[in-house]
User: Which sequence fits this backbone?
């Protein structure tokens, strides 16, 4: 995937340069964020989805997996660029987020924001181009393109609900990360193999609970993770006012004085470390943390059971998916 | 095209509603802007490009023209939503622009801007989906998808140069509107017909000067147009600081006291009507207006000549393209 991205970016930088040297700056912002890291989990899920539904593996298949993996990484860059601006997050993947990087180069914050949005436009355009370059089996081509655009639509709607502080956190999370973090890549990978509908459905039964588990793990790490490992400061999610599963559960079970402590910290960038600590200890004492951890375990069990029951998948691919469960939901960063 | 859009939007509103009633609001913003009007010039160019390269016309062809036309209209909505926010334009097509409409519903301007960007995300996703629904002849499918993504890339780069106030106004305009206003639709329409490379090249020779002429007409209307007809207030482009062909020519020929008058108005929302009028009269006296009008005529002549020389195009299609020259470059709104 990285080699495919390098290749693709080299061509695009040359194309941009031919249009105007300045156009390279937008492409450069996309390259910078995309190549700065990220766990490349989604390309692994694509490959596992592919292997789970076929024993075939030709050079042509490898090529298609690489293109599709690169497309999904660029979709991810596009989403991160926009989310970071919308959430005023100035850091990403151990460096400045895209709008923060532009803000160092131009005077006006509005202009920096506009350039970051334009860079995200470039990224989604590249994602679509790489999707088009991915050769799906003819019988699955239409389904695959539809799966991609549906995934795009759902994640955008999820971001909207998130911004509006929608009361149904699990719906928001399912839309925002569920579709494109696990289900989308796994299903697209299977379509690359020309999987049967039965196989695709089996993978969906596995992917849905795993997507939720991934997000719950994210929520737990955003509040209880070690800053040195996660790269996020203590209390980051709380000070940002993120509508996490922890917060939703706290709203359900907290007494009124505990709710006051929650409201003091939530969305308050100025909250002190002591206030944050009081709140996280409250999460532990009141069983909020335990509740979310229990739900996470339950989702993992669902995903594992779905995989065990799926006799239509290859042992090889199932094995890879089992390993990915660990990496996605038992990670510490 | 409008029937296709109605149909498509009805399905998407139902899909959004199934995800979450609130998600309908993003789709609603796309519907609102797209159906509020616009000249639907691009779908006409698609159809003319199609007719110029084939005598065939089946129900299947009509269907493909409608899908592609709808795709381009949604690309246009996406661009308008973003441009209006970037340029702080609160009006569009006789109603509030998308970020301005959201600003009436939510408190924070940043949230309104974020929702407008999400609506633009929905619009470009829909555009891609309708592009995928357009059945190109197999021999042209790859070219057509590439033409679409290249067009997207170029217009985004053009917008970047525009925001940065790039010195080369004609390059900026060529990228920003040249590619997707005339050349893109005409060439995509031709590809729908399975046009030969010779035919596509002939259409490009016609489309490039016409795209420039369209933009020059836009520039002239933005400064000399009648507000009652164009829907834009007097001096709109000047107060917004738009980098038009008029401004570029003025910078080239103005004496220093005239430049002072230009700088007093350009990008100054507070400039008085008297100051604007002094400047527009300067544009006339110094030959700036005449220069831009002469260039416009020259481009029109180029486009007409290209069309007359193109023996590989059908008489029917050429006739339609001749008529479109008038509508695009001799319009008064």
Assistant:
């Amino acid at each position: 995937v990285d080699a495919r991205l390098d290749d693709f970016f080299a061509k695009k930088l040359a194309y941009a340069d031919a249009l105007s040297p300045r156009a390279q700056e937008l492409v450069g912002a996309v390259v910078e964020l995309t190549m700065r890291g990220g766990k490349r989990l989604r390309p692994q899920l694509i490959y596992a989805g592919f292997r789970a539904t076929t024993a075939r593996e030709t050079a042509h298949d490898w090529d298609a997996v690489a293109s599709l993996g690169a497309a999904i990484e660029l979709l991810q860059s596009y989403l991160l660029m926009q989310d970071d601006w919308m959430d005023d997050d100035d850091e990403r993947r151990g460096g400045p987020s895209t709008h923060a990087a532009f803000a160092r180069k131009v005077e006006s914050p509005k202009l920096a924001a506009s350039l970051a949005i334009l860079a995200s436009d470039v990224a989604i355009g590249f994602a679509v181009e790489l999707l088009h370059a991915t050769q799906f089996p003819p019988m699955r081509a239409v389904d695959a393109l539809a799966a991609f655009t549906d995934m795009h639509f759902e994640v955008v709607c999820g971001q909207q609900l998130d911004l509006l502080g929608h009361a149904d956190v699990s719906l928001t999370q399912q839309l925002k990360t569920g579709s494109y973090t696990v289900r989308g890549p796994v299903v697209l990978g299977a379509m690359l193999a020309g999987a049967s509908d039965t196989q695709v459905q089996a993978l969906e039964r596995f992917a849905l609970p795993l997507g939720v588990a991934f997000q719950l793990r994210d929520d737990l790490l955003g509040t209880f993770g070690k800053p040195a490992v996660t790269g996020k400061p203590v209390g980051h999610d709380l000070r940002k006012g993120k509508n996490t599963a922890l917060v939703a559960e706290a709203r359900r079970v907290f007494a009124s004085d505990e709710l006051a402590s929650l409201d003091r910290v939530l969305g308050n960038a100025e909250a002190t470390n002591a206030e944050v600590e009081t709140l996280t200890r409250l999460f532990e004492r009141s069983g909020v943390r335990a509740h979310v951890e229990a739900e996470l375990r339950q989702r993992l069990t669902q995903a594992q059971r779905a995989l065990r029951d799926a006799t239509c998948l290859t042992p090889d691919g199932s094995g890879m998916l089992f390993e990915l469960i660990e990496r996605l939901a038992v990670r510490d960063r």
Notes: The mean pLDDT of chain A is 92. Chain A has 16 helices and two strands. The CA atoms of residues 132 and 292 of chain A lie 40 Å apart.
